[in-house]
Amino acid sequence: MAFPIHRPRRLRRGETLRAMVRETRLAPADFIYPLFVCEGRGVRREIPSMPGCHHLSIDTLVEEVKAARDDGVTGVILFGIPGSKDALGSGAYAEDGIVQRALAELKEKVSGVILAADVCLCEYTDHGHCGVVEDGDVANDRTLPLLARASVSLAKAGADLIAPSDMMDGRIGAIRKALDEAGFQETAIMSYAAKFASAFYGPFRDAAGSAPRFGDRRSYQMDPANAREAMREIALDVEEGADIIMVKPALAYLDLVREARSRFDLPIAAYNVSGEYSMLVAAAERGWIDRERAILESLTSIKRAGADLILTYFAREASRLLARSPRS
After folding, report:
1. Where are the domains of the chain?
2. Is 66 a catalytic residue?
3. Which of 131, 142, 225, 256 could form a disulfide with 138 if both were Cys (CB 3.0 to 4.6 A apart)?
4. How far apart are CA 169 and CA 287, in angstroms?
5. Does the bond joining 51 to the residue before it have cis omega, within 30 degrees of 0?
6. 109 is known as an active-site residue
7. CATH superfamily of 25-323
8. Sequence-separated (6 or more) residues with CB below 8 Å from residue 259
9. Of the residues 66, 107, 248, 303, which is catalytic?
10. What pTM was estimated for this model as a whole?
Protein backbone atom coordinates (compact mmCIF):
# COMPACT_ATOMS: atom_id res chain seq x y z
CA MET A 1 0.00 0.00 0.00
CA ALA A 2 1.42 3.40 -1.06
CA PHE A 3 1.41 6.08 1.56
CA PRO A 4 1.06 9.81 0.72
CA ILE A 5 4.31 11.77 0.49
CA HIS A 6 2.57 15.11 1.16
CA ARG A 7 0.75 15.30 4.47
CA PRO A 8 -0.74 18.79 5.05
CA ARG A 9 -2.52 17.42 8.12
CA ARG A 10 0.80 17.43 9.97
CA LEU A 11 0.37 21.18 10.52
CA ARG A 12 -3.21 20.83 11.78
CA ARG A 13 -2.46 18.66 14.79
CA GLY A 14 -3.48 20.87 17.66
CA GLU A 15 -4.62 24.47 18.08
CA THR A 16 -1.22 25.84 19.03
CA LEU A 17 0.37 24.51 15.85
CA ARG A 18 -2.57 25.66 13.75
CA ALA A 19 -2.22 29.16 15.20
CA MET A 20 1.51 29.16 14.52
CA VAL A 21 1.05 28.62 10.77
CA ARG A 22 -2.14 30.66 10.36
CA GLU A 23 -2.03 32.84 7.25
CA THR A 24 -4.67 35.45 8.09
CA ARG A 25 -4.78 37.12 11.48
CA LEU A 26 -7.53 39.28 12.90
CA ALA A 27 -6.85 41.94 15.50
CA PRO A 28 -9.06 44.49 17.28
CA ALA A 29 -7.15 47.24 15.44
CA ASP A 30 -8.73 45.93 12.22
CA PHE A 31 -12.23 46.92 13.39
CA ILE A 32 -14.24 50.12 13.11
CA TYR A 33 -17.33 50.05 15.33
CA PRO A 34 -20.53 51.65 13.90
CA LEU A 35 -22.64 53.47 16.50
CA PHE A 36 -25.99 55.28 16.37
CA VAL A 37 -26.22 58.50 18.38
CA CYS A 38 -29.56 60.10 19.24
CA GLU A 39 -30.99 63.01 21.20
CA GLY A 40 -31.74 62.77 24.90
CA ARG A 41 -29.88 61.71 28.00
CA GLY A 42 -29.38 58.28 29.52
CA VAL A 43 -30.70 56.62 26.36
CA ARG A 44 -29.61 53.07 25.56
CA ARG A 45 -32.44 51.69 23.44
CA GLU A 46 -31.99 48.35 21.70
CA ILE A 47 -32.72 48.29 17.97
CA PRO A 48 -35.30 45.52 17.38
CA SER A 49 -33.91 44.39 14.02
CA MET A 50 -30.31 44.49 15.29
CA PRO A 51 -30.26 42.73 18.69
CA GLY A 52 -27.27 43.87 20.71
CA CYS A 53 -27.06 47.25 18.94
CA HIS A 54 -28.52 50.40 20.44
CA HIS A 55 -29.53 53.98 19.94
CA LEU A 56 -27.28 55.90 22.33
CA SER A 57 -27.55 59.41 23.66
CA ILE A 58 -24.28 61.32 23.80
CA ASP A 59 -23.59 60.48 27.44
CA THR A 60 -24.10 56.75 26.96
CA LEU A 61 -22.20 56.92 23.65
CA VAL A 62 -19.15 58.20 25.54
CA GLU A 63 -19.35 55.24 27.91
CA GLU A 64 -19.78 52.80 25.00
CA VAL A 65 -16.74 54.16 23.17
CA LYS A 66 -14.66 53.96 26.35
CA ALA A 67 -15.74 50.35 26.82
CA ALA A 68 -14.93 49.55 23.20
CA ARG A 69 -11.49 51.09 23.62
CA ASP A 70 -10.94 48.95 26.71
CA ASP A 71 -11.82 45.90 24.58
CA GLY A 72 -9.12 46.95 22.12
CA VAL A 73 -11.21 48.68 19.45
CA THR A 74 -9.43 51.77 18.16
CA GLY A 75 -11.96 53.16 15.67
CA VAL A 76 -15.65 54.09 15.67
CA ILE A 77 -17.94 55.55 13.03
CA LEU A 78 -20.97 57.63 14.02
CA PHE A 79 -24.44 57.77 12.46
CA GLY A 80 -26.87 60.43 13.64
CA ILE A 81 -30.53 60.10 14.61
CA PRO A 82 -31.72 63.72 14.51
CA GLY A 83 -34.64 65.14 16.41
CA SER A 84 -36.16 66.55 13.21
CA LYS A 85 -35.75 66.26 9.46
CA ASP A 86 -36.31 68.46 6.42
CA ALA A 87 -36.10 68.32 2.64
CA LEU A 88 -32.47 69.45 2.51
CA GLY A 89 -31.15 67.35 5.39
CA SER A 90 -29.93 70.41 7.28
CA GLY A 91 -29.19 68.37 10.40
CA ALA A 92 -26.28 66.77 8.55
CA TYR A 93 -24.38 70.07 8.38
CA ALA A 94 -25.73 71.97 11.39
CA GLU A 95 -22.97 73.19 13.67
CA ASP A 96 -24.98 71.86 16.62
CA GLY A 97 -26.07 68.66 14.86
CA ILE A 98 -26.29 65.46 16.85
CA VAL A 99 -23.10 63.93 15.42
CA GLN A 100 -21.22 67.23 15.64
CA ARG A 101 -22.02 67.47 19.36
CA ALA A 102 -21.16 63.82 19.88
CA LEU A 103 -17.78 64.24 18.20
CA ALA A 104 -16.92 67.24 20.34
CA GLU A 105 -17.82 65.32 23.50
CA LEU A 106 -15.83 62.26 22.46
CA LYS A 107 -12.82 64.37 21.51
CA GLU A 108 -12.85 65.91 24.98
CA LYS A 109 -13.49 62.76 27.02
CA VAL A 110 -12.06 59.76 25.15
CA SER A 111 -8.49 59.38 23.93
CA GLY A 112 -6.89 56.71 21.79
CA VAL A 113 -9.84 56.19 19.43
CA ILE A 114 -10.09 57.30 15.80
CA LEU A 115 -13.40 59.08 15.21
CA ALA A 116 -15.02 58.62 11.80
CA ALA A 117 -18.22 60.35 10.75
CA ASP A 118 -20.56 59.11 8.06
CA VAL A 119 -21.47 61.80 5.53
CA CYS A 120 -24.85 61.41 3.86
CA LEU A 121 -28.18 63.21 3.90
CA CYS A 122 -30.50 60.20 4.11
CA GLU A 123 -30.72 60.13 7.91
CA TYR A 124 -31.61 63.84 7.92
CA THR A 125 -34.02 64.24 4.99
CA ASP A 126 -37.76 63.87 5.39
CA HIS A 127 -37.90 61.94 2.09
CA GLY A 128 -35.12 59.50 3.06
CA HIS A 129 -32.96 59.96 -0.03
CA CYS A 130 -29.23 60.67 0.05
CA GLY A 131 -29.42 64.04 -1.69
CA VAL A 132 -31.58 66.95 -2.76
CA VAL A 133 -34.71 65.80 -4.60
CA GLU A 134 -35.83 67.68 -7.70
CA ASP A 135 -38.72 66.51 -9.89
CA GLY A 136 -38.75 63.14 -8.20
CA ASP A 137 -35.04 62.46 -8.71
CA VAL A 138 -31.91 63.03 -6.61
CA ALA A 139 -30.04 66.04 -8.02
CA ASN A 140 -26.35 65.13 -8.00
CA ASP A 141 -24.74 68.54 -8.38
CA ARG A 142 -27.09 70.34 -5.99
CA THR A 143 -26.22 67.75 -3.35
CA LEU A 144 -22.43 68.16 -3.55
CA PRO A 145 -22.19 71.52 -1.71
CA LEU A 146 -24.29 70.15 1.14
CA LEU A 147 -22.07 67.09 1.50
CA ALA A 148 -19.00 69.33 1.47
CA ARG A 149 -20.58 71.60 4.09
CA ALA A 150 -21.41 68.59 6.28
CA SER A 151 -17.84 67.31 5.97
CA VAL A 152 -16.32 70.60 7.08
CA SER A 153 -18.70 70.86 10.05
CA LEU A 154 -17.78 67.33 11.14
CA ALA A 155 -14.06 68.02 10.79
CA LYS A 156 -14.47 71.15 12.91
CA ALA A 157 -16.25 69.08 15.56
CA GLY A 158 -13.35 66.64 15.76
CA ALA A 159 -13.78 63.92 13.12
CA ASP A 160 -10.48 62.25 12.18
CA LEU A 161 -12.03 60.49 9.17
CA ILE A 162 -14.76 61.81 6.89
CA ALA A 163 -16.70 58.89 5.39
CA PRO A 164 -19.01 59.85 2.48
CA SER A 165 -21.61 57.14 1.81
CA ASP A 166 -23.99 58.96 -0.54
CA MET A 167 -22.62 57.74 -3.93
CA MET A 168 -23.03 61.08 -5.68
CA ASP A 169 -20.67 61.55 -8.62
CA GLY A 170 -17.76 63.88 -7.81
CA ARG A 171 -18.39 64.10 -4.09
CA ILE A 172 -14.86 63.10 -3.04
CA GLY A 173 -13.35 65.93 -5.07
CA ALA A 174 -15.89 68.41 -3.70
CA ILE A 175 -15.30 67.31 -0.11
CA ARG A 176 -11.50 67.29 -0.46
CA LYS A 177 -11.56 70.83 -1.88
CA ALA A 178 -13.85 72.09 0.88
CA LEU A 179 -11.78 70.47 3.65
CA ASP A 180 -8.54 71.89 2.26
CA GLU A 181 -9.98 75.39 1.88
CA ALA A 182 -11.27 75.26 5.47
CA GLY A 183 -7.82 74.33 6.80
CA PHE A 184 -8.44 70.60 7.27
CA GLN A 185 -5.78 69.34 4.89
CA GLU A 186 -4.85 66.61 7.37
CA THR A 187 -8.39 65.24 7.74
CA ALA A 188 -8.60 61.96 5.83
CA ILE A 189 -11.44 60.72 3.62
CA MET A 190 -12.63 57.13 3.83
CA SER A 191 -14.83 56.80 0.78
CA TYR A 192 -17.69 54.36 0.39
CA ALA A 193 -16.29 53.97 -3.12
CA ALA A 194 -18.17 50.86 -4.26
CA LYS A 195 -21.49 50.90 -2.43
CA PHE A 196 -24.13 48.63 -3.87
CA ALA A 197 -27.93 48.87 -3.86
CA SER A 198 -28.13 45.90 -1.54
CA ALA A 199 -30.93 43.97 0.13
CA PHE A 200 -28.68 43.66 3.19
CA TYR A 201 -29.24 47.25 4.43
CA GLY A 202 -32.73 46.68 5.82
CA PRO A 203 -31.93 46.60 9.54
CA PHE A 204 -29.74 49.72 9.26
CA ARG A 205 -32.55 51.65 7.61
CA ASP A 206 -34.78 50.61 10.46
CA ALA A 207 -32.15 51.72 12.97
CA ALA A 208 -31.46 55.06 11.28
CA GLY A 209 -35.01 55.77 10.11
CA SER A 210 -33.54 56.33 6.65
CA ALA A 211 -35.67 54.23 4.31
CA PRO A 212 -36.69 56.29 1.25
CA ARG A 213 -40.30 57.48 1.29
CA PHE A 214 -40.63 56.86 -2.45
CA GLY A 215 -38.72 54.88 -5.04
CA ASP A 216 -35.37 53.37 -4.17
CA ARG A 217 -31.65 54.18 -4.39
CA ARG A 218 -30.75 52.22 -7.49
CA SER A 219 -30.21 55.40 -9.53
CA TYR A 220 -27.16 56.24 -7.41
CA GLN A 221 -26.09 53.11 -5.52
CA MET A 222 -24.45 50.45 -7.67
CA ASP A 223 -26.02 47.48 -9.45
CA PRO A 224 -24.94 44.34 -7.53
CA ALA A 225 -24.12 42.64 -10.84
CA ASN A 226 -21.37 45.11 -11.82
CA ALA A 227 -17.77 44.34 -10.92
CA ARG A 228 -15.91 46.35 -13.58
CA GLU A 229 -17.96 49.42 -12.74
CA ALA A 230 -16.99 49.00 -9.08
CA MET A 231 -13.31 49.22 -10.01
CA ARG A 232 -14.04 52.34 -12.06
CA GLU A 233 -15.86 53.95 -9.13
CA ILE A 234 -12.91 53.18 -6.85
CA ALA A 235 -10.41 54.56 -9.37
CA LEU A 236 -12.40 57.80 -9.66
CA ASP A 237 -12.47 58.27 -5.90
CA VAL A 238 -8.74 57.62 -5.66
CA GLU A 239 -8.17 60.20 -8.39
CA GLU A 240 -10.34 62.72 -6.51
CA GLY A 241 -8.39 62.34 -3.29
CA ALA A 242 -9.76 59.46 -1.21
CA ASP A 243 -7.32 58.17 1.41
CA ILE A 244 -9.15 54.90 2.19
CA ILE A 245 -11.55 53.11 -0.14
CA MET A 246 -14.46 50.93 0.92
CA VAL A 247 -16.52 48.10 -0.52
CA LYS A 248 -20.04 47.79 0.92
CA PRO A 249 -21.48 45.25 1.72
CA ALA A 250 -18.64 42.90 2.56
CA LEU A 251 -19.64 39.23 2.62
CA ALA A 252 -21.59 39.15 -0.66
CA TYR A 253 -18.83 41.15 -2.37
CA LEU A 254 -15.63 39.46 -1.23
CA ASP A 255 -14.61 39.01 -4.85
CA LEU A 256 -14.57 42.78 -5.23
CA VAL A 257 -12.59 43.26 -2.02
CA ARG A 258 -10.02 40.88 -3.50
CA GLU A 259 -10.06 42.63 -6.88
CA ALA A 260 -9.65 46.04 -5.24
CA ARG A 261 -6.74 44.72 -3.18
CA SER A 262 -4.98 43.54 -6.35
CA ARG A 263 -5.48 46.86 -8.16
CA PHE A 264 -5.11 49.61 -5.56
CA ASP A 265 -2.41 50.37 -3.01
CA LEU A 266 -4.59 52.42 -0.65
CA PRO A 267 -5.97 50.92 2.57
CA ILE A 268 -9.17 49.04 1.85
CA ALA A 269 -12.17 48.92 4.16
CA ALA A 270 -15.17 46.61 3.92
CA TYR A 271 -18.49 47.09 5.71
CA ASN A 272 -19.95 43.99 7.38
CA VAL A 273 -23.42 45.49 7.10
CA SER A 274 -26.53 45.28 9.24
CA GLY A 275 -28.24 42.50 7.29
CA GLU A 276 -25.12 40.35 7.52
CA TYR A 277 -25.00 41.04 11.26
CA SER A 278 -28.67 40.35 11.90
CA MET A 279 -28.77 37.12 9.88
CA LEU A 280 -25.90 35.68 11.90
CA VAL A 281 -27.44 36.80 15.19
CA ALA A 282 -30.84 35.33 14.27
CA ALA A 283 -29.35 32.00 13.21
CA ALA A 284 -27.30 31.81 16.40
CA GLU A 285 -30.35 32.60 18.55
CA ARG A 286 -32.10 29.61 16.97
CA GLY A 287 -29.15 27.36 17.63
CA TRP A 288 -28.50 26.82 13.94
CA ILE A 289 -24.89 28.02 14.05
CA ASP A 290 -22.18 28.55 16.64
CA ARG A 291 -22.26 32.31 17.17
CA GLU A 292 -18.67 32.82 18.30
CA ARG A 293 -17.13 30.67 15.57
CA ALA A 294 -19.35 32.23 12.91
CA ILE A 295 -18.37 35.77 13.96
CA LEU A 296 -14.66 35.07 13.73
CA GLU A 297 -14.99 33.00 10.55
CA SER A 298 -16.96 35.67 8.71
CA LEU A 299 -14.62 38.48 9.79
CA THR A 300 -11.59 36.35 8.88
CA SER A 301 -13.03 35.86 5.39
CA ILE A 302 -13.22 39.64 4.92
CA LYS A 303 -9.65 40.09 6.09
CA ARG A 304 -8.47 37.15 3.96
CA ALA A 305 -10.08 38.71 0.89
CA GLY A 306 -7.84 41.74 1.35
CA ALA A 307 -9.56 44.24 3.64
CA ASP A 308 -7.31 46.21 5.97
CA LEU A 309 -10.24 47.61 7.96
CA ILE A 310 -13.61 46.04 8.74
CA LEU A 311 -16.62 48.08 9.81
CA THR A 312 -18.60 45.66 11.96
CA TYR A 313 -21.23 45.71 14.68
CA PHE A 314 -19.37 42.72 16.13
CA ALA A 315 -16.29 44.86 16.86
CA ARG A 316 -16.45 44.64 20.65
CA GLU A 317 -17.54 41.02 20.80
CA ALA A 318 -14.96 39.92 18.24
CA SER A 319 -12.22 41.79 20.11
CA ARG A 320 -13.10 39.97 23.33
CA LEU A 321 -13.15 36.63 21.50
CA LEU A 322 -9.74 37.32 19.98
CA ALA A 323 -8.33 38.16 23.41
CA ARG A 324 -8.99 34.62 24.58
CA SER A 325 -8.51 32.75 21.31
CA PRO A 326 -5.31 31.45 19.69
CA ARG A 327 -6.98 32.24 16.37
CA SER A 328 -5.54 35.73 16.63
Report:
1. 25-323
2. no
3. 131
4. 44
5. no
6. no
7. Aldolase class I (3.20.20.70)
8. 227, 230, 231
9. 248
10. 0.95
